Amino acid sequence: MESRIQKGARPDTMLINMGPSHPAMHGTFRIMLELEGEKILNAEVEIGYLHRGFEKTCENKTYFNLMPYTDRLNYVSPQINNMGYAMTMEKMLGVRVPERAQAIRVLMSELSRISDHLTCLAAMAMENGAFTVFLYMMKAREFLWDVIEFTTGSRMTTSYIRIGGVRADLHAGWRESVKTAVAETRGVLKDVHGLLDKNQIFLNRTRSIGAISKEDALSYGWTGPCLRSAGVLYDVRKAHPYSIYDRLTFDVPLGDYGDNYDRYMVRMREMDQSLRIIEQVAALIPDTAPAVAEEGLEPTEAVRLGRLHKPAQKVRLSPNLEGSEKDRYPDILTADAPVCVPPKEDTYTTMEGLISHFLFFMKGFGIRPPKGDVYFSVEGGNGEVGFYVVSDGTDRPYRLHLRAPCFHLLSALEQLIRGRFLADVVPTFGSMNMIGGELDR
Amino acid sequence: MEKDALIGEIRQRFAADIESDAESLGDQVLIVRREGLRAVMSGLRAAPFDYAVLLDLTCVDFLATENRFEMVYHLLSLSRNSRLRIKASLPGGNPVVDSLSGLWKNADWLEREVFDMFGVGFTGHPDLRRILMYEGFEGNPLLKSYPWRKEQPLVPLKD
Q1: Which of A404, A409, B52, B127 has the fewest CB atoms within 10 Å, i.e. is most exposed?
Q2: DSSP 3-state assignment of A14?
Q3: Do residues A350 and A356 make contact, with C-beta atoms less than 8 angstroms apart?
Q4: What is the secondary structure of A100-131 as a DSSP string?
Q5: ipTM confidence score
Q6: Contact A390 B56 (CB under 8 A)
Q7: Are B55 and A92 a contacting pair at CB < 8 A?
């Protein structure tokens, strides 16, 4: 079928495709362009290449089971999605989350936010020819992901934040790895400021290109760093504080012109603020006895001794192994009964524990919120990540809708590149941080 | 309460078009007649209410009920720092509602998504066609009557 742009095209212009698989398209995404020389007369954006039916799938999964699907929305900052979904359900169920878990969540989502911004800016800088910046930022991201990986057991799709708390406590020695990550990221940000801020090549491709007015940004439903780059003060963490954000000190950086350069600068300065938050939160989290014995029997040795009687010493287990965290549960998971997975220690050793395990996972049991609907949002890497959940009283959502910040950003792309040059598409698109998983769901 | 006063003011202003209001877990909800939706929305967007941002627009399919589809809008006012949920019911037979694409620019894509996923029509939309699914896809995937595991494509693969 003819697309809109084909129908309206003038006979003397050239129609070209950027994408669906183009090196500058972060994911699969297509822009059809009508060109006169290098000038873009008209543009049409086509999305949906990564549509996986997230919302339909969620209608057929229990509230607990659909958590891993939320990782795959904005897959660069999965913890923020986890947190958004978990907090939506907590609002619906009226669950209170322990203090320590709240702090860990904030720590994790700020780490994710920085890695999200780093990824966006690294790719944007690389597409503008600054490959060094790309490598520097990827290096910083590795240090952040070290913290995430040691605690959650995986780098990207973590499913770490759960309804009612978090999956496990922070790993032993987290304070040092957070400190390293913060120091390394600060160093990289300083270097990148030095490389790009006054770089004429970068300025030529970003200053006053892809500019959006305040009114248009609001009309397109923009949120997050892109909206703030246009000079509008709206940050969910400040406007509707959730978790412990109201107790933390941080600024919300704003831009002036809403162009590519401002979007770059707002993200850079936001990372500074996130680092500040991380330091504050790290100070708020008290040290506790490690959940897993650092010194203790090797698991194989424990099994050998266990044939005769249960060994008295603690067993040295991996912190990510199931069945070693019951002691930590009061701090990291809510006590409200059917919301969290019962501790594995009980499931494997007592009849009651096994029953409560089944009562959690059996079809028709588990988490069953009351009838009604709820909307809750958190500040994601790209803007307001909102979940709208309709419950009919059963164990799976009747309808689950994601407000994807990317979707709103990208709907403005056609307008931003119209009348500009072909080469302006790349930095404009790059500064918006399109994430396929979230855009197409 | 300030919130209640605001709802009262809105109800008074659009008395003919608003069926009822409710509170759902601390969020304010207005239920609007579908004929009056555009009028209410454009009134809410302007001063003094100043709901300048259309945060979200979606639809829910209540298969068994008479008014099968429920449009759900989330508005945000920056000056009041408050959100508002607007709902409008549409009949199952001919689900059509006024498009808001003249009021908010992001309504264009959001309404295309609802059209794609639910088959709801929007009068006054400039370019109503599928957005996430491809040309030639049959049915509307988020309808409750669409089987979860149904497999398409019905478009033949190219050699």
Answers
A1: B127
A2: strand
A3: no
A4: HHHHHHHHHHHHHHHHHHHHHHHHHHHHTT-H
A5: 0.90
A6: no
A7: no
